UniProtKB/TrEMBL annotation:
UniProt record, GO biological process: protoporphyrinogen IX biosynthetic process
Catalytic residue positions: K194 (schiff-base intermediate with substrate), K247 (schiff-base intermediate with substrate)
Family of this protein: Belongs to the ALAD family.
Pfam family, one: ALAD
Protein's recorded name: Delta-aminolevulinic acid dehydratase
Classification via InterPro entries: ALAD, ALAD_AS, Aldolase_TIM
UniProtKB keywords: Heme biosynthesis, Lyase, Magnesium, Metal-binding, Porphyrin biosynthesis, Zinc
Length: 323
């Protein structure tokens, strides 16, 4: 039988496979999440996230050097305060841990792009992302505190803010507040399609943000809902979002695809803590080839339409790409 089409011709060797490859993961695509804490000479490994640490500011500088040396262009900062209260004061304090970490990063590595997570959950004694009254999460009163947080990050030198709280109207509130404070050029990267997922467990250990009662299902999206993600995204873009995050990434590739196809804005896939930990656990048992699995996962996010990827694998990926 004569075959006119032989797709295997373009798979014959590494050279031709590389030449016709449709999607690539580049180091410029990566954003590395980092956790900072008060104290000195402290580097706490997260038990459920091997290779991920909480850094005191003195050792944070050393960790940043590795990020910069590997060519990773951006970090996403999360802070763990010394104390917590009902209104999350540490989130928007002038000398809060994230604010101080931004100043350190910009002092030593001014060209490193610093993104800050804007939320209250790490700073409240109840672990929720908003103010509480009679067991209910208050939406509108929370917006003012989130806006104060974003402005304080910008004043410290942050290049971009990323609200992750999922309160209604928070992108518009942040955009208005930043503009009025003179920070019209600070982009907002919105966690627009953020689902109430089981993949966040290890992060809550890393950030100390486990809710003390209930859960976050009244403000994070229900996992079965795709159309709701489109509504959330449309609202955030209308309010001024510059980039859109889909979180988690692996189980929500369809949402990444739909977001990119429908809106055409820069889309960021968040390869979250549970996805990272599963790979690390299976690799430690010798069940999988970690590098192949990670790269296959990340390229699936690019194939779905992601422009950027937030991932705890970023440093390892940067090393692999150098080979």
């Amino acid at each position: 039988m004569e075959l006119k089409h032989r797709p295997r011709r373009l798979r014959a060797n590494a050279a031709i496979r590389n030449m016709v490859r449709e999607n690539h993961v580049r180091v410029d695509d990566l954003i590395y999440p980092m956790f900072v804490i008060y104290g000195e000479n402290t580097k706490n490994e997260i038990p459920s996230m091997p290779g991920v640490y909480q850094y005191s500011l003195d050792l944070f500088v050393d960790a940043l050097k590795e990020v910069v040396d590997l060519g990773v262009p951006a970090i996403l900062l999360f802070g763990i305060p010394e104390s917590k209260d009902a209104v999350g004061t540490g989130a928007y304090h002038e000398h809060g841990i994230v604010q101080e970490a931004v100043r350190v990063a910009k002092k030593y590595y001014p060209d490193l792009y610093v993104i800050t997570d804007v939320c209250l959950c790490e700073y409240t004694d109840h672990g929720h992302c908003g103010l509480i009254m009679d067991g209910q999460i208050l939406n509108d009163p929370t917006l003012d505190l989130l806006t104060q947080t974003a402005i304080s990050h910008a004043q410290a030198g942050a290049d971009m803010v990323a609200p992750s709280d999922m309160m209604d109207g928070r992108v518009g509130a942040l955009r208005q507040g930043l503009d009025q404070a003179g920070f019209t050029n600070i982009p907002v990267m919105a966690y627009s399609a953020k689902f109430a997922s089981g993949f966040y467990g290890p992060f809550r250990e890393a950030a100390g943000s486990t809710p003390q009662f209930g859960d976050r299902r009244t403000y994070q999206m229900d996992p079965p809902n795709g159309n709701e993600a489109m509504l959330e995204t449309a609202l955030d873009i209308e309010e001024g979002a510059d980039l859109i995050i889909v979180k988690p990434a692996l189980a929500y590739g369809d949402i990444t695809y739909r977001t990119k196809q429908r809106f055409g804005v820069p889309v960021v896939a968040y390869n979250v803590s549970g996805e990272y930990s599963m790979v690390k656990a299976a690799s430690a048992q010798g069940w999988i080839d970690e590098e192949r699995i990670v790269m296959e996962s990340l390229v699936s996010m690019k194939r779905a339409g992601a422009d950027l990827i937030i991932t705890y694998h970023a440093l390892d990926v940067a090393r692999w790409l150098q080979k």
